[in-house]
Design goal:
InterPro entries: Carb_Metab_HTH_regulators (IPR050313), DeoR-like_C (IPR014036), NagB/RpiA_transferase-like (IPR037171). The chain is an alpha/beta fold. It is built from 3 helices and 9 strands, in the order E-E-H-E-E-E-H-E-E-E-H-E.
């Protein structure tokens, strides 16, 4: 709602079946919509980030939509708190290198940050110089 009122921004929401636990839009309609657009910047979230498995989430239908969004976007930004680093979920979304930037919090494990940045993805959090 805060973004929708800003001048110069066209905000689009995906339809489809809305999952009760995550409120994510998934399913055939969602995939069709993602396939019809070219996105400037995609903001996504995931359940897990590991150097070996990349980005993962708990639901395979959500993983498929997130993967499609990353592929359709010129730039992808991952919003993930420190608890997502080092965690692996069931559905694979994308390799870490598919994301341009990760925004997290200051409690993130610095060893995992180094591994992520080694894959070519920037990691930022409040207070980082």
């Amino acid at each position: 709602m805060a973004v929708a009122s800003k001048p110069g921004i066209d905000l689009h929401l995906l339809g489809g079946s809305i999952r009760r636990d995550s409120l994510a839009g998934v399913g055939t309609w969602t995939h069709q919509l993602v396939g019809m657009v070219s996105v400037d910047t995609a903001f996504i979230s995931v359940g897990g980030i590991t150097p070996e498995r990349g980005l993962t989430t708990h639901n395979i239908a959500e993983a498929a939509v997130k993967s499609s969004l990353i592929k359709s976007a010129r730039r992808s930004i991952l919003l993930a708190d420190h608890t997502k680093f080092g965690r692996e979920e069931f559905g694979r979304v994308a390799p870490i290198a598919a994301i341009d930037t990760i925004i997290t919090d200051p409690a993130v494990n610095l060893d995992l940050v180094r591994e992520v940045e080694g894959a070519g993805t920037e990691v930022f959090w409040p207070g980082r110089n």
